[in-house]
Amino acid sequence: MKxxxxxSAIAAALILTACASQAADDNQTEAAKRKVAKVLxxxxxxxxxxxxxxxxxxxxxxxxxxTDMNHIFGHSYMMLCASxxxxxxxxxxxxxxxxxxxxxxxxxxxxxxxxxxxxxDADVVSILVGTNDIEYYVGKEEGQxxxxxxxxxxxxxxxxxxxxxxxxxxxxxxCTPFVGKVGWRGDAPNFGLRQSxxxxxxxxxVKMAAEYGAxxxxxxxxxxxxxxxxxxxxxxxxxxxxxxxxxxxxxxDLWLEKAGPLFQ
Length: 264
What we know:
5 strands, single chain, alpha/beta
């Protein structure tokens, strides 16, 4: 027959075991919360937003001020996303990086991928690119060969493959490029061509997101809807390509809605 002291010892042991188990669960929860330590946003001018006090110039990362907190994120949707993430999870000290560079194409991103993406070892990588690939194509004289969609697709996939090869558990967020029938680009005779090519890129991004298990952010659908219901033609996008501050706010809202679960 067990004595009172023996029963007390058993009870104490059970309590200690329960506490240890709870502590282990808590540690796992904390570890899960710490998993996302770095977030990278990379792309062109729409992401750039003048980060690093670039004043809108197409200057490379090395030539930008990366210590001035007044301009560290620029003023695009990226800044709104990063500020929300960091303010929501201050205890996790999540680092966010803007590596958008104005004027960049998918090939420009690929050329600087190792330095501006792989080297950062980010846990979440968000990509928005394609606008300039189409911009430069439609800006050339007529009679040129068809747009190289397969080559574009291969360059994009090459970046994703490189990233996954180095960091297999990286969370990818693929954002679709967009255009609006607004401003001088919207009034241009080649707008129909521009729209059809952007649609082609969007289809490829949607397909890649499914194949790579990435989070998909349909900015094209967002602006298509916004442009159907706007106070004035240039309310959400002012030149056919670049969002207004209101447009960037809606982009951030959608990005956080789709990618937010990665941080929970």
